Protein 1
Amino acid sequence: MTSAIEAAEAPEAPLDVRPGFLRSKVLRQPQTIAGLTVLVLFVLIALLSPLLAPDPKAQVGAVFEAPSGAHPLGTDGGGADMFKLLIAGARVSLIVGFAAAVVSALIGGSIGLLSGFFGGKVDTILMRFTDYVIVIPDVPLMIVAAALFGRSLTNIILIIGVIYWTTTARLIRSQVKSVRERVYVKRSRALGAGNTRLISKHVLPQVAPLLIANTVLLVAYAIFAETFITFLGLGDPSLISWGRLIENAFTDDALLNDAWWAIVPPGVCVACVVLACMMVGQATEDSLNPRLSVGHLSVRRFGLRAVPRREP
Amino acid sequence: MSVLTVSELHVWFELPGGRELHAVRGIDFSVDAGERFGLVGESGCGKTTAMLALMGLLPPNASVAGEVLLDGENLLVRGEESAAPHRWREIAMIFQGAMNAFNPVQTIGDQIVEPMELHDFAEGKQALARARELLEVVGIPGDRVSRYPHEFSGGMRQRAAIAMALACKPKVLLADEPTTALDVMVQAQILELLIALASDFGLALVLVTHDLPVVAQVCDRAAVMYAGIVAELGSVDRLYHDPRHPYTRLLFAATPDLYGADAVGSIPGAPPRLDRELIGCPFAPRCDRAFSPCPTVTPRLLEVEPGHIAACHLNDHAVVAAS
C-alpha cells in the first residue's frame, strides 16, 4: 500500500471527484483489456457488416467448398462464402444476446429489488409470480409465443428476456434481503433517508456486481437461446445469425460432407463473445467491490514474501 | 440556560402477548451548552433507549411520554413531525458501534456527505469540502475523504463516525458508548477529541457509557441510571467522593483501583425485570443497606445538596426516623 503512504506525505492532494468506476483499476487489468478488445472487435464487425460483407447469401462457389485463398472459411451448403456469413451473423446474434440480457436484467433486477427490499406482501406476491413463471417450460412457451406474436427480431428478444429473468430475480432478492439488514442501511435510515435513496445509494451498489455478473451470463444464455430458437425454425427466416448458420449446416448435412468449416466457426464466435463478456464482467465486479482488491490476507498486495532462512 | 432539558421521560415497548416493558421510567436531566454530561448504568438500564427517544428513533412498538425541550421547544409534542426538523441539524447521535456502520463500497466522504444532503445542509462540492473539513476537525488528514472504510483503522472509523454526527453543526451530541471496542490508547484520544469538540464548538455532549473511569475523565456532571430511573445525579466529583445512593457507591467500588489497595467489589444479583410493575426501590434486593421501607415504598428523588439528587430512603430523614 505505498499509495497510502505517499498520500499521507502529500497533505494537499487535490480532491478526486471522478466516479468510482474510472478511479478504479478496472481498465488497467489485462483481462479487461483482452475481454474489451474482443468485444469491441465483434461489435465493430457487427456494426460494419453491411460494408465488410455485402450480400452474404450470394452463391459464390460450389457447395461445401473447402477453405481457400478466395474463401478463407470455405462455403456453406448453398455455396455462399462462410466468412461473409459469419460477419453478417454477428449482428443479429449480438443484438439478441445483449438486448435480451438487458431485458432480463431489468425485469429480474427490479422484481428482485422490490421483493427483497419491501418484503412482506410485496415479496409474497412477486415471488409467487416468479415461481409461476419458473414452472412454465421454456421451450414450449417460446414456440407458442413465437407462433402467437410472429417471428420477428424484437419478438425473439422479448421472448428470451421475459423467460430468463427468474433466476436473476431470485438471486437479487436474496442478496437485497441480506443487504437491507446491514448496519449502514439502518444508519442511513436513521439519518432520514427515504426508500428511493436507500435503494439507489446503499442497496443497488451492493447488488450491482451480482447483477452485472448475472447479466453477463445471461448474454451467453440469450445467444444460445437465439441459436436454438432459430434451429427450431422459429427465428426470423430472413436474418442471418450464428444460430442460423449452425442450423443451416445441420440441415444441409455439413457433417456428412466433412465440412467442419460450416459448423466450427460460428461455435467459436459464440464461445469468444461469451468468454470476453465473462472477463469484462469479472473485472467490473472487482472494481465495484473495493474489498476484493485488498484481501486482508493477500500477500502480493502488501509486497510481502516468505523470507528465506539465513544461516548464521 | 440549558440547551437540552429532559423531564419525566418514559418509554414503553409493547411486547407480543399484550405485555408491556417499561424501559425508561421517568427520567429528568438537563445539559448546558459546552457541558459534558454522563449517563452511566449497567446493560439494559435504559441508557440507549432514552437516547434514541431523544432522537425520536424508536422502533414502531415503542411509545413515549414526557418532555424533551431543545432550546425550549418540545420535540415529543407531535411525534415525528416535531422531531424530524431538529434531528441531525440540532441534535445528533453517534450510535453504539457506529464505527462498524459504514457502507464498505462507498467512500468515507460520500457517507459523511449523506446527512448533509438529506437535511438540505449542503450538497455537491460544498458538502464534500465540508466533509474534508470535518475530517480535519476530528484529526484525520482531509485527503482521506476519497478513501474507503476498510482503509481506515478502528479509531479512524470512530473519528469518521463523529465527523458524520457533526455534519450539520448540531448543538447537542449524544454519544452512545463511543469508546467501546477500542483499545485504551485510542479510547483516550477519542475522549480527548470529544472534550475538545464540546469546548471548541459549545456542544452539549451527552456521553452514554457503562465505563465509570470514562465518565470521570470526560464529564462535568453525570446521572446514574438503574432499571429505567435516575438513581443519582450530580457533579462527577460529588458522585465519586460522596455517593448518596448505595448503587453509585457499589458501582465505584466495582471499578479497579490503580494502586490496587482495595479488592474490587461486585454487586450480587441482577437488575429487575422491566416487563412488570416495580414496587418499592428497584435496587432494594441487591442493596447492602436496605431497610424496612425499601421493598415496599418507592423512594423520592431528594436534593441532598445543591445540584446533587438521589433516590434513596437513606437520605430521607423522615423515613429513616420512622423505621
Protein 2
Amino acid sequence: MNDRRSHEHMERIIVKTIYTYGLVLSMTSMTAGLLLKFITHDPSSGPADLVHLGAGSIPDALMVVGIGILAATPLVNVVALMQHWARHRNLRMAAVAATVTLTLAVAVILERS
Amino acid sequence: MALLVGTGVVAGGLGALVGIGGGIVVVPVLVVGLGYDIRTAVATSLIAVVATSAAAGIAYADSGLTNIRLGLALEVPTTIGGIAGGLVAVSVAPSAIAGLFSMVMVVVSVLMWRHLDTHDLLSHDANSMSSPIRPSLLRGTYFDRTSRSVAYDPQRLGLGASISAIAGMLSGLLGVGGGFIKVPAMAMGMGVPVKAAAATSNFMVGITAIASLVIYFARGYVQPIVAVPVSIGIVLGALAASHATPRLSAVRVQRLLALILLLVAIQMALEALGGEVYE
C-alpha cells in the first residue's frame, strides 16, 4: 500500500514538474513575443508555422515557439509517465500510456498524409 | 488586446473550476463578440484548453484530486474518438450535430442539478472508505477540505470508456475539450467524487485537445496575435480559480457545472440555428 502511495506521489511530481516547466517556458516565450510586438510596432500577424520560424518576425517566432511548447506539454507528460511506469514494471499503465502516445502519433500521421 | 486577455481570464477561471477547457467561453466571445473566423476561434480555443489544463493541473497535482491513472485509461477511447470525430466532421452537417448536442446538454445539466446532492456525495465517500482493502489499479485518494482522506474505486469502466469515446468524438467535431461530458460521466456513471472528476477531466482535456490542434496548426488556423493574449489571460484565470476549488463545496461545483452545461446548450442551439458560423 505504501509502495503504491509513493508511486502515485512520484506520478504527481512528474506531472506537476512538467506542467510547471512547460507553462513557465511557454508563457515566457509568448509574453516576450507579445511585448516585443508592441514595442517594435511589428505589423505582421500571420498564422503560426513551426516549420518556417525564420521566415517571420522575431516577435511572431517567439509567440509560435511558446504555443508549440504549450501544445507539447501534455504529450511530454504522457511520455514521462510511460517511462516511469515501465521503469517500475507497472506494465499495464505503461501500455495504456503507450497506446495514448501512439494514438496521438496517428493523428499527426493522418494530417501529414 | 485587453478584451482578448479578459476573455482568457473568464474562460480560464470557469474552466478550472468545473474541469472543462474553457473553450465554451472562448469560441462564442471570439466569433460573436469580436468577429473572428470560426476556425481561428476554434484553434484559439484548443490552445486555451491546453493552457487551462496545464495551469490548473499544477494546483490539482498538489491536492491529489487528479486521478492520473484513471485519466490516462479513459484517454485511450477519448483520443480515438477525437480522431474519428475529426474525420466525421468533414462529411456531416455541423449545424445538425450542434442541434443534437444542445439537446443532450440540456438533459445532462438537469440531471446534474437534481440528482447529485450533498447526501449522495457524502454517502458515496463513506462507502468508498469502507471498501475492500485490495485497491483497484485505478483507485483514487485525496484529502478534502476538512483534511479527511477520501478514497474511491471507479466503477463501470466500460460505461466510462464508451462515454469518453463519445466525448472525444464531440471534441473532434466541435473543437472543445469535452470535459463537460466527462465530468458528469465520471461523477454520475462511475462513482468518482465530483471534485476528483473535475480535476481528472482537466488532466484529460489537455491531451485530447492536442489531436485536433495538430490539424489546425498544420492548416494555418492558429493566429498567434489572437491565441497568445487569450492563453496568457486563461493561465491567470485558471491559476486563481484552481486555488479556490479545494475550498469550494461539492454542491457549489456541481451546480456551477450544471449552469455551464446550460450555457453550452444555448451556445450550441444558437450556432445550429445560424449555421453560417461554421461555414
Protein 3
Amino acid sequence: MRNARHFAPGYATRDHAALIAANRHVLWEPAWRKLLRYTAIAGFCGLVIAGLWHIDATPQRILPGLTRLFMLLPMMVPPEPGDFLWTYLYAVLQTIAMALVATFAAAIVAVPVGFFASRSFNRCAPCRIILRRLMDIVRSVDTLIWALIFVAGVGLGPFAGILAMAFKDTVVLGKLFSEAIESITDSEVDSVRATGISGIALIRFGYMPQLLPIMLSHALYFLESNTRSATVLGAVGGGGIGFWLVDRIGVNDWQEVSFIIIMLIAVVIGIDWLSANIRGRVIGSAGHIRQ
Amino acid sequence: MPPISNTVPPLSAPVRRVETLRRERAQRLRRDLVVFGGAFAVALALSLGVGEVNPAKFIEGFPRLFSYIGRTAPPLDMAALDASLAEWFWRWNIWSARLFDTLVIAFLATTFASLFAFGAAFLAARNLVPRPVSIVVRRLLEFFRTVPELVFALIFVFAFGIGPFAGFLAVLVHSTGSLGKLLAETVENADDRDLEALKAMGTSWIPRVRFALVPQVLPNFVSYALLSFENNIRSATVLGFVGAGGIGQEVMTAIKQFQYTDVSALIVMIAALVMVVDMLSGWVRRHLVEG
C-alpha cells in the first residue's frame, strides 16, 4: 500500500489534485513561457474578434439570417425537378463530359510541359525558372476566374469551361509531372540510354514505364476535382449544371434547388467511386502515390 | 566431331507451363486494354459531343484567346516605370482593401473550421464512438465538403445578405467538411496503445481523448489547418462573384467590362497574395514537422 502511494499518489483513488501535486516537476513551466503562451492566445483571440468585426458579424445580421435560413429548409423539401427533369439530367451529363474532356486534354498536354519544367530534362535553368514562375501564377488563380476570362475570350458555353479547366490543370499537372520526372530512379533510364537510343524513344522506354502509373493516378485525382469544379462553372456561363443552380436560386424555386444539389452530390460521389475503382484496378500498387 | 545442333532442345514441362501462363496473361492484358480503352474512347467521343467541342470552335476560339491575352499586357513604359505602374494598378487602394477582406474571410473561416473539425473528428472516428454516431457525423461532413462553396455562398447571401459574412460562412462550412474528414482519418490511424492504457485505468471518455489522442494528433491537425488556409484563400477569391465579399466582385467587374489591363493587374495581385500565404504556411509546416 505504501509502495503504491509512493509510486503515484492518487493513481488508485483517481484523486486528480493529488496526482497533479505529485507530478508538479513535469507540469511546471517557467513564468516567461507561461506569459508568452497567454499573450499569444490573447493576441490570436484579439485578431479573431477584430476580423469578425471587420466582416460585420453582428447579432443584427446573424439572428435574422438564421431565421431566414431555417425558413429556407422546409421550402426545400420535397426536392422536385419540376418540368425540367431532362434539362437537368442533360446538364449533369454535360458537367461530367466537361470534366472528362478537360482532364484528358490536360493530362496529354501536361506530359511535354512536365518534361520542359523538370530539372533532369531541361538544362536551361533560366527558361525553367521563368516557366515555373508563370505556372505558379496560373496555379494560384482559381478555376472560376479563369472560366470567367475564357468566357469573355471565346463566348458562353461548355467549351469555355472546358478550356478553363484544361488550362489550369495542364499547369498544375505539369508541375506534378515534372516533380515525378525529377524523382524517378536514374539507373533505369541510364540502362535504357546505354542501348544507344535517345530523344522520344528514350522517353518512351526509359521514363514512361516508371512515370505512367504516377501520371495516371494524378490524372484520376484531377478527374475527381474537375467534376467538383465543373458543377459551378455554369455560374459564370461556363456550361453544365451550375447555370441552372444559380438560375433556380435567382427565382426562389428552392425545391428544384435542393433537387439539383442532390444530383450534384450524387455525381461527385459517383465519380469519386469510379475513379477510386479504376485507380485500384489499373494502377494497382502505384495507386497510393500522392497523399 | 559431332555436328553442332542449332535446333532448340524441347522445353521441359515446368518451362512450358510458365510460358503458357505468360502468354495467357499477355492476352488478358491486351483484352483489358481493348475493353477499357474502347469504353474510354466511346465516353470521350460522347463527351466531346455533349461538351460542344469541335474543330470549328478551336479555329475560331484560339485567335480570339491570343488577342485577349495580348490586350491584357500591361501598358509598361520603361522610361517612366513608376508612372506606368501607377496607371496599371490605378485602383490599387480599393483592390488591396478587397484583398484584405479575402484574407480575413479565409483566416476566420479556417480558425472556426479548425475548431469545429477538431470536435467533429473525434465524433467521426470509428474507434472512439458508437457506429451510428460516427456514421451520422461522417455523412454530415461529406455533405459539407461535396456541395461546392459557391452554392453555400449563394444560399448564405440569400439568408444573411450581401457581404463578406456570407462568404465567411460558406468557406467555413466547406472547410469544416474537408478538414473534419482528414482529421478523423488521423485520429483513426493514431497509435491506440495510450488509449487502451487509459481505458484500462477506467478513465472516462473526455480525458481519454485529451491525454491519449490529442497530443499525438495535434501536430497533424495544425499542419492540415494550415493547408486548408491555403485552399481557403483561393476559394475566397471567387466568392465575390455571387456577392459574398472579397476580391471576386472586382475581378468579375473587370472581366465583364473588358477592362483588360485591370484583369492582368488583379491576377498579379491575387497570385502574389496566394504565393506569399503558401510560402509562409509552408515554412511553418516544415518547422512543425521537423521540430
Protein 4
Amino acid sequence: MSTRALINVPKKAKRGEVIEIKTLISHAMETGFRHGTNGQGIPRDIITSFSCKYNGEEIFATQLFPAIAANPFVTFYTVATESGTLAFTWEGDNGFAVTEEAKIVVE
Amino acid sequence: MRKKEKSMARLKLTRRQALLAAGAAALAPKPAGAQAPGQMQAAIRAALGDAKINKGKVNLDLPPLVENGNTVAMTVTVESPMTKENFVKAIHVFTEKNPQPNVIRVKLGPRAGKAEISTRVRLADTQKVIAIAEMSDGTFWSDTQDVVVTLASCLEDLVP
C-alpha cells in the first residue's frame, strides 16, 4: 500500500506570526465495526496518533479514534518562532508509521 | 372445528404481530454496534475525571444537517489568549451514538498561538456531539451541537 501524505506549511513567515498548517494522509481508517461480504467482522485498522515537532520540540499531538473519517485531514496553528523543520509523524494499527518533513523560513 | 378456528386466529395474530414487528424494525433501524446510553458520559469521566464542565468559551462548528455521515467537516475553536500563563491544554470531542464515544483528543500548548483545530469526522446517527476544552488553569469548558444525519457512517457493510 502506498501512503501519500500532503502537508501545507507556508514557505516563509514573519517571526511571531501565527501560521496555519494543513495535513492530509491517505488511509482507509477501517473502523472495526463493519462486516465484509462473508459476514465476518473487518478488523480495525486506523491511525491512532499524529504529532508535529518544530525543530525537535513537540508543538501538537492528537489521538485519533475510529470516528475520524478516511484519509485523516487535520488543520492546526502554530507560532513561527525560527527557521527550521517541521516533522509530522503518523502512527497506527499494524505497525503503521509515516514521517514527513516540511521546511520553513522565518524572517 | 371451533378449536381449529381459534388456533387459526392465534396464528393470524402472531403473523400480524410478526409483520408489525418487522415493519417497525425496518422503519427504525438501530445500528448493531450503537453505544449504550450513558456510555458517552462514562467516556468523558474516564478522560477528564470528576472535574466540573462549564458551558461556553468553546465553539464547535458542525453542519446542522449532514447528508453523508462518512465525512463531516468539524472545527473546534476555543477562546483563549494562548499565552504561557493562560492557554488551552487539550481539546476532547465525544459523540452520543457512534459505536465508540471518543472522536479525537488534541494536546495543545502556548506555542499553538491560536486554539483552533479542524478535521473530518464520521457520524453514525442523528445525535449530539460535544467538544470539551481543558485550560491551563484546570477548568473545563464545552459546547454541544445537535446534528441530523441522513446517511449514517461507520456501520455500513460491504456490498458484494
